[in-house]
């Protein structure tokens, strides 16, 4: 475990906690894409299949449980909670996320580290995570006044992947034959997708103006 | 080692 990876995991944790707190306290999911939340729940479900069969460390197990619980809780809030569901921006959250699940599944079948169910599911989850933010970014472009918590959620979600890239660089130079092309390429693609969001987010923060993403 | 062929990252 290196500092970059720990910082990355903590930033990822902060992003889901920020979102869960926002939804739980103000009972609103305005500006939040249900599709991105569903994709993330699927990412964790597909990636953490080995949760009970392969013990890495207490930290690893606890974090997996937290990510699984938080992502499914957020989806539950947005679908089932009588107050929160009414604040869901259904008519603007129209990204056809089914169109990205299938290609990621096919890619997982073609490009994986080992052709076993668990490894295919793992690769699928890596590819899916790379594009899971798309519905949320599209929704942000359509949302007029983006509330701070949602913007912070997306920012931390992007920041965690940037930190993971530093983690991979560090591990590449400190651990012999630490090579994970699948994670590396998908992780870089994922980070690039946040590019313009980061640009406008930092600009709005610097000029102290409301975040606006150009459509 | 076992952890080598498994994914130790989240």
TrEMBL record, chain A:
Membrane topology, as annotated: Multi-pass membrane protein
Entry keyword annotation includes Transport: yes
GO terms assigned for molecular function: ER retention sequence binding
Chief localization: endoplasmic reticulum
Pfam families, A to Z: ER_lumen_recept
One cellular component (GO) term of this entry: endoplasmic reticulum membrane
Entry keyword annotation includes Ribosomal protein: no
Subcellular location: Endoplasmic reticulum membrane
Gene Ontology biological process terms from the UniProt entry: protein retention in ER lumen; protein transport; vesicle-mediated transport
Annotated transmembrane regions: 55-78, 99-115, 121-140, 152-170, 182-202
Keyword vocabulary terms for this entry: Endoplasmic reticulum, ER-Golgi transport, Membrane, Protein transport, Receptor, Transmembrane, Transmembrane helix, Transport
InterPro entries xrefs: ER_ret_rcpt
Family as reported in the entry's similarity comment: Belongs to the ERD2 family.
Protein name as annotated: ER lumen protein-retaining receptor
Organism name: Lolium multiflorum (Italian ryegrass)
Lineage: Eukaryota, Viridiplantae, Streptophyta, Embryophyta, Tracheophyta
